[in-house]
Amino acid sequence: MRDGWQWSAPSWWEGSTGNIAWSLIALAAVVILFSFLHFRARKLMAGRILRRIDRQYAPGLERGRLRSAFIFNTRPWASLFRRLPLGWNARTRKRLRKVIAEANENVQVLNDNFTDPSGKIAPHTQAAVPLSVVSPETGHQGRTSPKPAAG
Fold it and tell me: Which residues 6+ apart lie within 8 Å of 63 measured at CB?
Protein backbone atom coordinates (compact mmCIF):
# COMPACT_ATOMS: atom_id res chain seq x y z
CA MET A 1 0.00 0.00 0.00
CA ARG A 2 1.19 3.41 -0.84
CA ASP A 3 0.52 6.62 1.05
CA GLY A 4 0.89 9.80 -0.87
CA TRP A 5 -0.98 12.66 -2.40
CA GLN A 6 -4.45 11.76 -3.35
CA TRP A 7 -7.12 13.97 -4.88
CA SER A 8 -10.60 13.48 -3.68
CA ALA A 9 -13.39 15.44 -5.32
CA PRO A 10 -15.57 17.68 -3.15
CA SER A 11 -19.10 16.50 -2.48
CA TRP A 12 -20.69 18.98 -4.89
CA TRP A 13 -18.41 17.66 -7.68
CA GLU A 14 -19.35 14.00 -7.27
CA GLY A 15 -22.51 14.14 -9.38
CA SER A 16 -20.99 16.16 -12.23
CA THR A 17 -18.38 13.58 -13.16
CA GLY A 18 -20.80 10.69 -13.29
CA ASN A 19 -22.40 11.70 -16.60
CA ILE A 20 -19.88 12.52 -19.34
CA ALA A 21 -22.52 14.24 -21.49
CA TRP A 22 -23.26 16.88 -18.85
CA SER A 23 -19.55 17.39 -18.31
CA LEU A 24 -19.01 18.04 -22.04
CA ILE A 25 -22.01 20.39 -22.15
CA ALA A 26 -20.62 22.33 -19.19
CA LEU A 27 -17.18 22.48 -20.81
CA ALA A 28 -18.68 23.69 -24.10
CA ALA A 29 -20.66 26.38 -22.24
CA VAL A 30 -17.49 27.61 -20.50
CA VAL A 31 -15.57 27.71 -23.82
CA ILE A 32 -18.41 29.57 -25.55
CA LEU A 33 -18.67 32.08 -22.71
CA PHE A 34 -14.91 32.66 -22.69
CA SER A 35 -14.85 33.07 -26.48
CA PHE A 36 -17.73 35.54 -26.40
CA LEU A 37 -16.05 37.64 -23.71
CA HIS A 38 -12.69 37.47 -25.48
CA PHE A 39 -13.99 38.59 -28.88
CA ARG A 40 -16.24 41.22 -27.31
CA ALA A 41 -13.30 42.75 -25.44
CA ARG A 42 -11.17 42.57 -28.59
CA LYS A 43 -13.86 44.37 -30.61
CA LEU A 44 -14.29 47.00 -27.89
CA MET A 45 -10.56 47.76 -27.79
CA ALA A 46 -10.32 47.84 -31.60
CA GLY A 47 -13.16 50.39 -31.66
CA ARG A 48 -11.33 52.59 -29.14
CA ILE A 49 -8.15 52.48 -31.23
CA LEU A 50 -10.09 53.29 -34.42
CA ARG A 51 -11.63 56.35 -32.72
CA ARG A 52 -8.12 57.43 -31.66
CA ILE A 53 -6.91 57.06 -35.27
CA ASP A 54 -9.85 59.22 -36.41
CA ARG A 55 -8.91 61.92 -33.89
CA GLN A 56 -5.18 61.93 -34.60
CA TYR A 57 -5.19 61.81 -38.42
CA ALA A 58 -6.88 64.20 -40.82
CA PRO A 59 -9.36 62.68 -43.27
CA GLY A 60 -7.59 61.45 -46.34
CA LEU A 61 -5.54 58.69 -47.84
CA GLU A 62 -3.23 58.14 -44.85
CA ARG A 63 -6.07 57.77 -42.33
CA GLY A 64 -8.06 55.54 -44.66
CA ARG A 65 -5.15 53.20 -45.25
CA LEU A 66 -4.23 53.10 -41.58
CA ARG A 67 -7.84 52.24 -40.65
CA SER A 68 -8.02 49.55 -43.33
CA ALA A 69 -4.75 47.97 -42.23
CA PHE A 70 -5.83 48.00 -38.58
CA ILE A 71 -9.23 46.45 -39.35
CA PHE A 72 -7.53 43.85 -41.57
CA ASN A 73 -5.25 42.85 -38.69
CA THR A 74 -7.99 42.72 -36.03
CA ARG A 75 -10.38 40.35 -37.77
CA PRO A 76 -11.55 37.50 -35.51
CA TRP A 77 -9.50 34.85 -37.32
CA ALA A 78 -6.28 36.94 -37.27
CA SER A 79 -4.07 35.57 -34.53
CA LEU A 80 -2.90 37.81 -31.72
CA PHE A 81 0.39 35.92 -31.57
CA ARG A 82 1.76 36.81 -35.01
CA ARG A 83 5.16 38.46 -34.92
CA LEU A 84 4.43 40.69 -37.93
CA PRO A 85 1.17 42.29 -39.08
CA LEU A 86 -0.76 40.64 -41.89
CA GLY A 87 0.45 41.87 -45.27
CA TRP A 88 3.94 42.69 -44.01
CA ASN A 89 6.23 40.25 -45.78
CA ALA A 90 9.43 40.13 -47.86
CA ARG A 91 7.65 41.45 -50.96
CA THR A 92 6.25 44.43 -49.05
CA ARG A 93 9.66 45.23 -47.56
CA LYS A 94 11.28 44.99 -51.02
CA ARG A 95 8.66 47.31 -52.51
CA LEU A 96 9.12 49.82 -49.67
CA ARG A 97 12.92 49.78 -50.10
CA LYS A 98 12.44 50.44 -53.83
CA VAL A 99 10.14 53.43 -53.16
CA ILE A 100 12.60 54.87 -50.62
CA ALA A 101 15.52 54.44 -53.05
CA GLU A 102 13.60 56.20 -55.84
CA ALA A 103 12.67 59.04 -53.49
CA ASN A 104 16.31 59.42 -52.43
CA GLU A 105 17.40 59.53 -56.09
CA ASN A 106 14.81 62.22 -56.84
CA VAL A 107 15.93 64.29 -53.85
CA GLN A 108 19.55 63.98 -55.00
CA VAL A 109 18.63 65.15 -58.51
CA LEU A 110 16.80 68.16 -57.07
CA ASN A 111 19.74 68.95 -54.81
CA ASP A 112 22.19 68.70 -57.70
CA ASN A 113 20.08 71.00 -59.88
CA PHE A 114 19.06 73.67 -57.40
CA THR A 115 21.68 73.86 -54.65
CA ASP A 116 25.39 74.53 -54.37
CA PRO A 117 26.47 73.48 -50.89
CA SER A 118 30.19 73.83 -51.66
CA GLY A 119 29.82 77.38 -52.98
CA LYS A 120 31.95 76.72 -56.07
CA ILE A 121 29.61 78.37 -58.55
CA ALA A 122 29.68 82.18 -58.43
CA PRO A 123 26.37 83.88 -57.84
CA HIS A 124 24.63 85.28 -60.90
CA THR A 125 25.92 88.83 -61.35
CA GLN A 126 25.17 89.05 -65.04
CA ALA A 127 22.43 91.46 -66.10
CA ALA A 128 19.25 89.87 -67.29
CA VAL A 129 18.78 89.67 -71.02
CA PRO A 130 15.82 91.78 -72.10
CA LEU A 131 12.88 89.78 -73.34
CA SER A 132 11.47 90.22 -76.78
CA VAL A 133 7.79 91.04 -76.77
CA VAL A 134 5.19 91.78 -79.39
CA SER A 135 4.04 95.38 -79.29
CA PRO A 136 0.26 95.63 -79.18
CA GLU A 137 0.24 98.72 -81.42
CA THR A 138 2.48 97.53 -84.26
CA GLY A 139 2.30 93.77 -83.92
CA HIS A 140 6.07 93.60 -84.54
CA GLN A 141 8.49 91.79 -82.35
CA GLY A 142 11.18 93.95 -80.83
CA ARG A 143 13.33 94.42 -77.82
CA THR A 144 12.02 96.40 -74.96
CA SER A 145 14.18 98.68 -72.97
CA PRO A 146 13.76 98.89 -69.27
CA LYS A 147 11.51 101.77 -68.25
CA PRO A 148 13.03 104.27 -65.90
CA ALA A 149 11.78 104.09 -62.38
CA ALA A 150 9.28 106.75 -61.43
CA GLY A 151 10.39 108.91 -58.73
Answer: 53, 54, 57
